[in-house]
Amino acid sequence: MLGDKLLEVRNLRMYFRAAGSGFGKGSAKAVDDISFSVEKGQTFGLVGESGCGKTTTGKCILRMNKPTSGHIFYKGQDLATMTDSQLKPIRRQIQLIFQDPYGSFDPRQSAGAILKDAITGDGKRRTRMEIDAEVSRYLELVELLPSMADRYPHELSGGQRQRLGIARALACNPELIVCDEPVSALDVSIQAQIINLFEDLKAKLGLTYIFIAHDIAVVRHIADVIAVMYLGHIVEIMDAKHIFANPIHPYTKYLLAAIPAADHAEERERNGILPNDDIPRPGNAPSGCPFHPRCAHAAESCRQHRPELRDLGYGHFVACHMATASDAMDK
Ligand code: SF4
Predict the structure, then answer these.
(1) Which atom of ligand 1 sits closest to the CA of residue 321?
(2) CA-CA distance, 229 to 52, in Å (whole number)?
(3) Which pLDDT tens digit goes with each residue over 109-124?
(4) Atom of ligand 1 lying closest to residue 298 CA
(5) Residue 322 C-alpha to ligand 1 middle, in angstroms?
(6) CA distances to 105, 154, 160, 250 from 108, in Å
């Protein structure tokens, strides 16, 4: 059920030290002062090009990275400042699904053994029969046959391995799952099956997802809310069903224009994108609006001042000096 806030990220920063420098000047600002919240039962899409900071954001939420500053409130507790021992009871509640889970499986373990480890990680006593029954249940939940418990990861197809990765995450009984490019390595036909599986599982188990992807078309299919990231900043947050009807930030328009064909110069210019595709790196972000070198609407103020993410109404937040409340219409 939507309505309860499960996660609140506030002023999160994750800076990585560049070789031979301290923090501050010379550090790579992978994530630079982002804030958003995720409601229980929601699918929150995080989208942007490679290097925009979306995966780093996910790793901070999972506390695989300790943030440079900021807060990550999960059910009111600040994960950003917790010690490893304080995090231990929470870790099973927030799980990760990888782009290609193959590297995260022990190739010497069968699917059944992988799931058994995840199931028994909570330390509760179970009989052998109870564990086997749970292994079968999790395989069936992801639409694999219970007989596949005897197979090894290399004996599974890419789609079956991703289903096993999802089953392993579910076996920890999570509330929040961070899905990092979970379908990008799969064939298009399999992608649709896995997206449908995510939706079915959410309905059955009341899960909450943070769905990270570079492909806005994929995110749009599954997300309730979409946040667009560029060079470590969130530049737009909106209801996913409005994304085609009413994108406001020029970068969001660029991502949408890139969906049907990779490179239509006219279409991109119509959407306010300069042909310059020389994307700055996080360690070398431009002053002012980070998008200004690529934006056809850039004015002098854009080069000088970084736009704040502003609430324009109807749940639509935009970081652009030119955006006005009248742009955010209720469609
Ligand atoms: Fe373009 Fe200026 Fe808006 Fe940045 S603030 S997206 S440069 S118009």
Answers:
(1) 5
(2) 6
(3) 999 999 999 999 999 9
(4) 7
(5) 7
(6) 9, 10, 17, 49
Per-residue pLDDT at 83 exceeds 50 = yes
Dihedral sign, Cα of residue 322, residue 232, residue 258, residue 222? negative
Is the shortest distance between the CB of 307 and ligand 1 below 6 Å?
yes
* CA 204–ligand 1 middle distance (angstroms): 42
Q: Is 83 exposed, middle or buried (0-12, 13-18, 19+ CB in 10 A)?
A: exposed
Residue type, 40: K
Q: Token pair for residue 211? A: 């769905």
pLDDT in tens, 10-28: 999 999 987 655 545 568 8
Q: What's 152-198 look like in SS3? A: CHHHCCHHHHHHHHHHHHHCCCCCEEEEECCCCCCCHHHHHHHHHHH
Task: Report the SS3 class of residue 318.
Answer: strand
User: pTM of the entire structure?
Assistant: 0.90
Residue whose pair of structure tokens reads 């595709």 in the numeric block: 277
Ligand 1: does its nearest atom lie under 6 Å from the Cβ of 289? yes
Ligand 1 centroid, distance to 247 Cα (angstroms): 14
Radius of gyration of the chain (CA): 21
Task: Give the angle subtended at the CA of 78 by the CAs of 72 and 79, to the nearest 5°.
Answer: 70
The tokens describing 217, both together, are 């078309």
- Assigned token pair, 2: 């939507």
